[in-house]
Amino acid sequence: MAKTVTKVTSNKAASSKAASGKAAAMKNFEERLERLEILGEQIRKTDIPLDEALKAFEEGIKLARTLEKDLEKIDSRIEILMNSAEAPADDSPELELFAMEE
């Protein structure tokens, strides 16, 4: 009986891992962006030693490059979705979710 429960649990874990992969990627993006902002704040401090500022700068450059690559991937996915053959040509997409709040 215990083996059956373990098997079912591991199958559920595998399917939830696949489903949460996209959410985890977004979380990682947000965490990396937050880290980049923190590094920027550290570099702006006037009392930080030069070697620490340089290390923070190097880490920030690496983060910025990976974030830029992620944004390019997201942009291409959005473009594919917007130009999908499944969407009727005469229907314009609803962009209500992206409307700027004033």
Q: What are the key terms here?
A:
single chain, mainly alpha, 3 helices
Short description:
With 102 residues, the chain is mostly helical. The protein has helices spanning 2-19, 21-44, 50-82.
Overview of the structural elements:
By secondary structure, the chain is mainly α. It has a domain at 23-75. The protein has 3 helices and no strands. The chain has helices at 2-19, 21-44, 50-82. Helix 2 (21-44) packs antiparallel against helix 3 (50-82). The longest helix is centred in the middle third of the chain and has 33 residues, at 50-82. It starts with a helix and ends in a 20-residue tail after the last helix. 1% of the residues are buried.
Mean pLDDT across every amino acid position = 77
> Which consecutive residue ranges, at least 5 long each, have pLDDT under 50?
4-9
Would you count the extended β strands for me?
Answer: 0
Largest sheet features: none
Shape: elongated
Over all CA atoms, what is the radius of gyration? 21 Å
Distance between the termini: 59 Å
How large is the count of helical segments? Answer: 3
Question: Beta fraction of the residues?
Answer: under 5%
